[in-house]
Design brief:
The complex is a heterodimer of chains A (about 325) and B (about 90).
Chain A lengths: L4 H13 L2 E5 L9 H13 L4 E4 L4 H11 L6 E4 L2 E4 L1 H10 L1 H5 L11 E4 L1 H14 L4 E7 L5 E7 L5 E2 L1 E3 L8 E2 L1 H5 L4 E8 L2 E7 L7 E3 L1 H9 L5 E4 L3 H6 L6 E2 L2 H8 L6 E5 L4 H12 L4 E5 L2 H8 L8
Parallel strand pairs in A: 1-2, 5-9, 5-11, 13-17, 14-15, 14-16, 16-17
Antiparallel strand pairs in A: 1-3, 3-4, 6-7, 8-10, 11-12
Helix pairs in contact in A: 2-4
Chain B lengths: L11 H15 L4 E8 L2 E7 L8 H16 L8 E8 L2
Parallel strand pairs in B: 2-3
Antiparallel strand pairs in B: 1-2
Helix pairs in contact in B: 1-2
Classes of the chains: A alpha/beta (about 325), B alpha+beta (about 90).
Chain lengths: ~325, ~90
């Protein structure tokens, strides 16, 4: 089948301008097929960002990429302009370590993480495994590059690492891929009540947290001309009363711009007293930002300790 | 439950023959075995000296490249290749 020249050019541009490209069904947040979801899970465990192309919303690419790659199925992974393979090949490469090389990553040193599983969680996990396991499927924990945890039942792969399980779940088998294992030491798994019923609660001490910054540290950082994004999470009305010089109102446009920044960008958030900015800061941490600071005491502390010309309200 | 409509296509053996012919067109010296598995599903084994020295992706691309047309479009005769084995004689 011939490939339309404009489609060929579009695919070539995509794989040349993005180091890692996954042609898939759906997107990274909501994959629309199991094979695409599997590859997304593997890439999420290894990379913070990569480019995805949803072939369901681009039918010309859906057919075009099959001809372009001489490969009949979706998903298809390209790294540095080269076709790597589909789902089964990516899984195999994850298992034997070749994927680290292909992605230009240092192979991770395999560590056996210590994980504490509470009594209740151990019972619930055993129940789930009894109900949905079988067929060689075992309990897996993954921790992706943004430190989101996922529990699943899946066949064991040669690369899987067994956790050292402590607490009520001592002795149970819990498997992690090598990248997840490196992020999982010290995790606690418990059960918590949510509005939608009981759910597993995974507490990971390695996950980046919101750090606290005093107004004097903020002043020093501004005076030193440090590269920070200083964000004001208050309302426009409050901002009209008083504002810290250099701070930008976190409206929707601004939030969208910040979400597009590298995840190691230093974000400093303030509000009136430090409560709202703490919550906003936690949101950015959950998006994968690793340098997120909350200004303790907010603009009120700034007025009192740094600049009395900024009115208090 | 939604009712699924299955349009009867050509018999699997006929499609298997199309697959064989398409692969033979690209790899004239190959030994080709195509086994129908179910509607639209096939297993394929190809043995050819041309695979020598190629990695798994490159080997399979030689075969898939030959049968792209049978797998393209909304309702292709070949829905899925459940298993593709590329062997060096």
């Amino acid at each position: 089948m011939s490939l339309d020249e404009s489609v060929r050019q579009e695919i070539t541009d995509t794989i040349e301008t993005n180091e890692v490209v996954l042609f898939m069904k759906g997107n990274r947040r909501s994959p629309q097929c199991g094979f695409s979801a599997t590859v997304v899970g593997i890439l999420d465990s290894m990379l913070e960002t990569y480019h995805t192309v949803d072939v369901l919303s681009a039918p010309h690419i859906r057919d075009g990429i099959k001809t372009f790659s001489s490969w009949p199925t979706i998903p298809q992974l390209y790294v540095k302009g080269e076709f790597v393979g589909g789902c089964d090949i990516v899984q195999e490469m994850m298992g034997n370590g070749e994927l680290y090389d292909a992605l230009g990553l240092e192979p991770v040193e395999v560590v056996q993480p210590k994980i504490t599983v509470s009594d209740v969680a151990a019972q619930a996990l055993a129940g789930a495994a009894a109900e949905h396991g079988g067929g060689g499927r075992e309990l897996h924990l993954s921790v992706d590059a943004t430190f989101q945890a996922h529990l699943s039942l899946a066949p064991r792969t040669p690369a899987d690492v067994e956790a050292i399980v402590e607490g009520g779940g001592a002795g149970m088998t819990l498997l992690l891929d090598p990248m997840s294992a490196g992020r999982a030491d010290g995790i606690t798994i418990d059960v918590a009540d949510t509005p939608n019923g009981q759910a597993f609660k995974v507490d990971n001490p390695n996950a980046p947290r919101v750090q606290q910054m005093s107004v004097s540290d903020l002043k020093r950082s501004i005076d030193a001309g440090e590269a920070i994004e200083l964000l004001d999470v208050r309302t426009p009305e409050e901002r009209a009363i008083a504002a810290i010089p250099g701070a930008v109102l976190l409206n929707e446009t601004e939030a969208a711009r910040i979400e597009g920044l590298p995840r190691d960008t230093k974000l400093v958030l303030h509000c009136h007293h430090g409560g709202r900015s703490q919550q906003a800061a936690e949101q950015f941490v959950s998006l994968g930002f690793t340098q997120v600071f909350n200004v303790v005491g907010g603009i009120d502390a700034w007025s009192q300790e740094i600049d009395p010309d900024v009115p208090r309200y | 439950m939604a009712l699924q409509i299955i349009n009867a296509g050509p018999p699997p053996e006929e499609i298997a023959e199309q697959i064989r012919a398409a692969i033979a067109g690209a790899l004239p010296d190959a030994l080709i075995d195509v086994r129908p598995q179910g509607p639209g599903h096939f297993e394929i084994t190809v043995t050819d000296a041309a695979f020598e020295g190629l990695n798994r992706v490159k080997q399979q691309q030689l075969v898939y490249g030959a049968i792209t047309e049978l797998m393209a479009g909304a309702n292709p005769p070949v829905h899925a290749v459940d298993r593709l084995e590329c062997l060096v004689p």
